Input
Amino acid sequence: MTMNVAALENPVARRSIRPGRIIIWTLLFLGGVVMMTPILFMLSTSLKDASQVYDLRLIPEAPSLDNYVAVLSDGRFLRWFLNSLFVAVCVTVSNVFFDSLVGYTLAKFNFRGRYIVFIAILSTLMIPTEMLVIPWYLMASNFGWVDTYWGIMFPGMMTAFGTFLMKQFFETVPDEFLEAGRVDGLNEFTIWWRVAMPLVTPAISALAIFTFLGNWTAFFWPLIVTNSRDLYTLPVGLSSFAVEQAIQWEMIMTGASIATIPTLIVFLLLQRYIVRGVMLAGLKG
Amino acid sequence: MANIVLNSLVKKYGNTTAVHGIDLQVKDGEFVVLVGPSGCGKSTTLRMIAGLEDISGGTISIDGRVVNEAEPKDRNIAMVFQNYAIYPHMTVAQNIGFGLYTSKLPESEKKKRIEETAKILGLESLLGRRPSQLSGGQRQRVAIGRAMVRNPAAFLFDEPLSNLDAQLRTQMRLEIKRLHQRLGTTIVFVTHDQVEAMTMADRIVVMRDGRILQVGTPMELYDNPADIFTARFIGSPTMNLLPARLVDKAGHHAAELNGLGASVAVSAGGISGAQGAEVLLGVRPHDLVVSSQGNGIQGLSLSGTVSVVEPLGSETLVHLDVGGASVIASAPGKVIPKAGERVAVNASAGSLYLFDSKSERALCRM
Output
């Protein structure tokens, strides 16, 4: 009785008992369980020894960090980790620079063929990666880029998605900011760098995060273009645990757990920009 | 400081002509205001002077040098925009100093100039703040500071006060005028507000549909408008215009007000042979005064029913229905007629204007 009175008096409480809300929360909870279960099993498996891997209990019988010690003391893992970091950082920096430059040009300069260029760039989004892999490989092969860092990186150095995202954001920057810069004597590159770029920080952050995550987890192309183990990125290297000897699930899961750390750090630091970036990219079209 | 000369300046957007070959000379140190309604070409003209719009014809000279092809940065002008255009990611000091970004001055000199500018504009205590922490008036001062710090030959203002509230606008108007008196730099100021134009300008340029209608000092435009548009645009409340016809009365010209039965003797020359011509009789509300008696002197005398009264303290504006026509008159501040009351209004002959109905040009001031 007391609760009912409180619910009637307090609009928040009254709202919270709506059936629709309960359904939404239930669905969100189920979605959360579905998404979190594999991650929890990954962490759980990384704390088990080889004999317990197929024991599906979430909490290991005798949890141990031995796998972490083994993985981290294996020189190859560190190498793959650094390879992934190098590739992801280079591609991210390149995307932020070039996608912004092209996006800015398409958004803020009137020139003949601007629309056609934009459509041509956008149309590449419709081609699946699987169809591009063979031309990429032929190109890499002809230029001698196979089994090189540049070979891993070159297809992603500039993306249509990034260009589109940045163009949409730059369109929201009032022209007066840029004109003020022109009157103040700045050249166009300085206006872009000193005036326009700081005004689209959320977009830059979102693009940086998307690009970093995409390249950190990239598997297919690095697998194809690399031959030597020293050039493997982390996902490719981890997969080799499964083919070298017997499948070492506990090692794979340990490596995967460690591999999530940089992405978690990036996400936690910049998550508000991701949400804002995704929202704006969707709204401004 | 610099003089600015526009010679047959044209701006076209495709088939649309925004500015129709205008000529204008802005003298060194002069404060010129371009005024007119939206779409009259005033901002386009200013942007062409700044170099932000290409010109389609004619020439622009700044300090004797034709700058048609010169980049904005090479024109030695500074511009203040309607939306301030101060950078949100920079502090006040960085914003003001950004005007010196390309300058080769030593850092100490730049710092000195920033501080001096901030002092003039009363921004000294705000130098470390970001624009989001400033009021509208402070932001506008920062924008002016960024323009000032470069010590340009001329300032261009593009409706800089239109985003401010009425009180702040009055204050900023005064500050800009003081600044001009202090610096003596040439200023071209664009506004659609005739009060801004009247209160600040050395000379006003009235524009309409991409053409200059009249150029003159504020009082020249107020006292001797060249046409109906200028007459109505300059002065607040707007001038009353009553349809009339020129008639001959005992050998003298007179303007007979249509349907009102009143007539006014026209003594001025220049309208001979216009017998029967349709004209508009103009009278400013401040010159049409509510009176308890009829007009004893030569001039206009009307009577009408009060529809709305606007007491302003110093005076009262009285809206009248005069034989179906709406007329605004004035009364002393303490005289407040009641709505529905019938009152007489008089204007002396010297305060009346006559315009040609067809050409809309002024015929004479009576």
